[in-house]
Amino acid sequence: MKNLKGVRVMLVDDEPHITQFLEFGLLNEGFDTRTAPDGMTAVNLALEFQPHVVILDVMMPGMDGWEVCRLLKKNLSNVAIIMLTAKDEVEDRVKGLTTGADDYVVKPFSFEELLARIGARLRNQFPALYGEVSFGPFRLDDRRKEIRYRDEVLELSPTEYELLKYLVINHGIVLSKSTILDQVWGYDFGGDENIVEVYIRFLREKLNDKEHRLIRTLRGAGYRVDLP
């Protein structure tokens, strides 16, 4: 991943030997890296540094990783959070993911695995860093604001583009209307959430998805893209 210049990674852990080890490895991979020894420092640093990825310990004095995760997701427009912790019980994993974490790595860990997980989060949440990215029959080119479906360029409005990109990148995940509104229209959108239904209908027409096999509706839950 040395060709991904300008990717910002923030390390949050109260154990200096871990942050030093990770910082050395990530700098060697070409990442712009910052470290924070506690939760409050991490929140303040993140607002200034605007990281693409945060490697976040859970058990820290003062503000723990759960609260840091919640605040980062609330205050940053787009950030990938990978929880790094010795807590490996299922309930801890569930808590991390429901708090907003995008991935969960248990200590002890391999640096190569962590690097692979960072790459996976970047491809999913920051496709523009890679140019074109493929997801099944879709090819996304965020720099050109263009999506191809089965090798045909879709004629999309800016909002349709952002909505389809968000659905495709998060394929296999059920996304509620409120989540889609926050991520596509923005947290300060004051309109009716039924606008999501309208734009989903637009996309289905352009994808010839008459039977809703590609963009599925899960009544009472939201929408999910299923890739063939």
From TrEMBL:
<protein>
    <submittedName>
        <fullName>Response regulator transcription factor</fullName>
    </submittedName>
</protein>
<dbReference type="GO" id="GO:0000156">
    <property type="term" value="F:phosphorelay response regulator activity"/>
</dbReference>
<dbReference type="GO" id="GO:0005829">
    <property type="term" value="C:cytosol"/>
</dbReference>
<dbReference type="InterPro" id="IPR016032">
    <property type="entry name" value="Sig_transdc_resp-reg_C-effctor"/>
</dbReference>
<keyword id="KW-0238">DNA-binding</keyword>
<feature type="domain" description="OmpR/PhoB-type">
    <location>
        <begin position="130"/>
        <end position="227"/>
    </location>
</feature>
<dbReference type="InterPro" id="IPR036388">
    <property type="entry name" value="WH-like_DNA-bd_sf"/>
</dbReference>
<dbReference type="InterPro" id="IPR001867">
    <property type="entry name" value="OmpR/PhoB-type_DNA-bd"/>
</dbReference>
<dbReference type="Pfam" id="PF00072">
    <property type="entry name" value="Response_reg"/>
</dbReference>
<dbReference type="GO" id="GO:0000976">
    <property type="term" value="F:transcription cis-regulatory region binding"/>
</dbReference>
<dbReference type="InterPro" id="IPR001789">
    <property type="entry name" value="Sig_transdc_resp-reg_receiver"/>
</dbReference>
<keyword id="KW-0805">Transcription regulation</keyword>
<feature type="domain" description="Response regulatory">
    <location>
        <begin position="8"/>
        <end position="122"/>
    </location>
</feature>
<feature type="modified residue" description="4-aspartylphosphate">
    <location>
        <position position="57"/>
    </location>
</feature>
<keyword id="KW-0804">Transcription</keyword>
<dbReference type="Pfam" id="PF00486">
    <property type="entry name" value="Trans_reg_C"/>
</dbReference>
<feature type="DNA-binding region" description="OmpR/PhoB-type">
    <location>
        <begin position="130"/>
        <end position="227"/>
    </location>
</feature>
<keyword id="KW-0597">Phosphoprotein</keyword>
<dbReference type="InterPro" id="IPR011006">
    <property type="entry name" value="CheY-like_superfamily"/>
</dbReference>
<dbReference type="GO" id="GO:0006355">
    <property type="term" value="P:regulation of DNA-templated transcription"/>
</dbReference>
<dbReference type="InterPro" id="IPR039420">
    <property type="entry name" value="WalR-like"/>
</dbReference>
<dbReference type="GO" id="GO:0032993">
    <property type="term" value="C:protein-DNA complex"/>
</dbReference>
<keyword id="KW-0902">Two-component regulatory system</keyword>
